[in-house]
User: What shape does this take?
Amino acid sequence: MVFLHLAVFAVALLALVKFSDVVVENAALMARKLGVGQIAIGLTIVAIGTSIPELSASIAAAIKSRPGIIVGNIVGSNAANIGLVVAISTLFSSVVISRRTLKRDGEIMLLASALFFALALNSAISKLDSLVLLAFFVAYSMFLFETSGTRKREYAYADFVDYFLKFRYVDSLRKNVGRAMRRNAGKRKVWKELVVVAVSSIGIVVSADYLVNELVWLASWFGVSTEFVSLTLLAIGTSLPELSVSLRAAKKGFEKIALGNVIGSNIANLTLIPGIVGLINPLYLERKFTVVSIPAMLALSALFLLLGRKGQKISKPEGIALFAAYIAFVFLSI
Assistant: This one.
């Protein structure tokens, strides 16, 4: 009986990842047909794309009022992205970090982690908290869109904080949406891609529903909490897209892409996912998350940035150190 449930869990997880890949590929193709630039595609569709498995599983859990699964998936996926994805990538070559990515985006990732932790300290993510996290994600996306490609100066972490706190992203969003609508009027039709995205989205919803159901059953059968299974088994499974992208990038010599993928995905996991699912149902956290799991994830993120600062790269020994820290994270969660 347990093997059947394990098989359904594995098939649902693989289907979720595959359907997510199809959605990302067709959404990118649709964006290109409509005349959206490569920078915009990379900063929106691709950045969100690798977080679709986490997002869809979390939405399914929110509908079933299973907040422990959601938070466990978010925190566990971020830890896995650093302790597994980065560590495995170092087996192929030293993972290089650009100074700007490290100084700006890495610190923004740490800020997003601290914001999520601060909002969760009262053991709940309310709908107002969710709006704050969503605003952070929108601000970060628009900040990247506004500053990428400019040669006037190098924008830093402090520039983003100013951009976010002064709500400059609201005006940026309004201007860019209006510009895109005017530019894309009369462009090529994208009905085929729309149909594929719609059908694949249905596949994602069905796969996520089966995934959550099987996760609850397996946790009960093994006598462990659904939160622990979410922190480990589900988190590793939904991190497969990040692992795939980073491994391909590392093998082809695009080490900076491997790190940018991890940092961007972690920011999306901490802001976009709780921002959306928190509006469906407020997230109530068990105390072990705020006392152990989230602080441990923060420490792992800080270690990642600290190792990167040494030479703006993560070497194989440092990758092993990150993997060891991830194992410690899992044991602390137990």
Observations:
- The domain at 2-333 is CATH 1.20.1420.30 (A middle domain of Talin 1).
- The beta strands are 95-96, 124-125, 283-284, 313-314.
- The first strand starts at residue 95 and ends at 96.
